[in-house]
Amino acid sequence: MGIISRGFGGRRRESIPGLPPGQYLTHDFPVLSAGPTPRVPLDRWHFTVTTETGEQRRWTWDEFSALPHDDVTVDIHCVTKWSKLGTTWRGVALDTLLDEVETAADFAMVHSFGGYTTNVPLEDLLDGKAWIVDSFDGEDLAPEHGGPARMLVPHLYFWKSAKWVDGLRLMHEDEPGFWEAAGYHMYGDPWLEQRYQGD
């Protein structure tokens, strides 16, 4: 499992409210990706929800942009041990996107342009816990941070907040995504330090 790193060593652990165990505070916004940065033209962007029965609901960029947007301020925590507190985003709640989707699924596989995937329990995407965001800190979301749109699931490690998101596949059974298949934790709670399988 050579692609798994146990994180950086030598950092002083900080005792700061809002900082999960094992994390250090950063004021910049590190860019970490599993591959090259996709450049997705807005006229080719789409977001598709596919239910466990194969039914689909799809939005173009213009349709997505017309949906009600929330302003969100949250802390984010990367599995590589950095945390950034009080980040500001704007996006569409998953509650809005899934409002008229009929499903009995318990899990979702998040899909991205470029082929990245990550799994999330469906309950972790609902009730104001997750968004598809297209703005960070008052500006359009930059490609290196997942623009034009990324998932934001701030209560889980940040690899669950997939960049360049293009859809969700709803599932009855949990399946590993890209990093989970490589040994990362299936859930990823930063407060429990669920970084890797067995944590």
List the SSEs and their pairings:
Blueprint: E1 24-25, E2 46-50, E3 56-60, H1 61-65, E4 70-77, E5 82-93, H2 94-97, E6 107-112, E7 117-121, E8 131-136, E9 139-140, E10 150-152, E11 165-171, H3 178-181
Parallel strand pairs: 1-5, 2-11
Antiparallel strand pairs: 2-3, 4-5, 5-8, 6-7, 6-11, 8-9, 8-10
Structure description:
This is Molybdopterin-binding protein. The longest helix is centred in the N-terminal third of the chain and has 5 residues, at 61-65. The protein has a domain at 45-70 and 92-192: Sulfite Oxidase, Chain A, domain 2, CATH 3.90.420.10. The two termini are 16 Å apart. Helices cover 7% and strands 31% of the residues. By secondary structure, it is mainly β. It has helices at residues 61-65, 94-97, 178-181, and strands spanning 24-25, 46-50, 56-60, 70-77, 82-93, 107-112, 117-121, 131-136, 139-140, 150-152, 165-171. It is globular.
